[in-house]
Amino acid sequence: MNSGNEVRGFFNVSFATNAIAAAVVGLSYCFVNTPYQAALSSIGCYALSGALTNWLAIYMLFEKVPFLYGSGVIPEQFESFKAGIRNLIMQEFFTQENVNAVVSLGNHSQKWGALADELDYDKMYDALTQGLLESQMGKLLAMVGGQSAIESLRAPVQGKLQAVIRETLEDEKLQQQILNKFQQQDEEFLKRIEGIVEHRLDALTPKMVKNIIQKMIREHLGWLVVWGGVFGGLIGFIAHFL
User: Fold this and answer.
1) Is there a domain that residue 156 lies in?
2) Which of 2, 5, 25, 132 is placed for a possible disulfide with 44 were both Cys, Cβ 3.0 to 4.6 Å?
3) Which of 78-82, 106-110, 112-116 has the weakest average pLDDT?
4) Which residues have CB under 8 Å from 63's CB, separation 6+?
5) Dihedral sign (CA 152, 157, 162, 163)
6) CB of 232 within 8 A of CB of 21?
7) Which residues form the domain of 73?
8) A Pfam family for this UniProt protein (predicted)?
9) Is 39 inside a domain boundary?
């Protein structure tokens, strides 16, 4: 729907520009044998030639015109456009450096250590005490109050767990091992992404590539027709006085 609106917008702007230029030429015949006829005719003809030339050039980007060499450049060069799309995706976005920047925290120990503050220590402590109560020690603990008896240990045990985990995460050797693992996975991830991109690009046809580029830029190219008419008219106005 949007693509259709954009194409219609392009033709509306182009048609309006050419129609106005042609109307100026026609208007010149209303001033036969007056000083205005030559001026209006010159302005209208130059404006029409500028607008038509730019319109034809834009049309030839997307469509093959018989006997006009170089026309239909976008569908004709669709393999080059596919290669350009692939390079843009893989060399600008999915680079090893960009992926590493996303999945790694670098070698900043403080950042790694900060992960210790994000953990749920209540859940850890509950799992630990549940394991104790279900073990052979559970009977002994039950004799001294069970769960309620060891609840007072929650805060000190959680504090100790947090300190140990923080110290472990701040170990640079461990950090490097984790990063190396991430990098190995990153390479596999990039290969999968490249395979997906290649598969999708292989499915593209010249018409599909043409439609993609047409959707992106054709509406805006209509302004080239407008400015072709405007500057053509100005040149015609100047030429009239030369």
Assistant:
1) no
2) 25
3) 106-110
4) 71, 72
5) positive
6) yes
7) 2-81+207-241
8) DUF445
9) yes
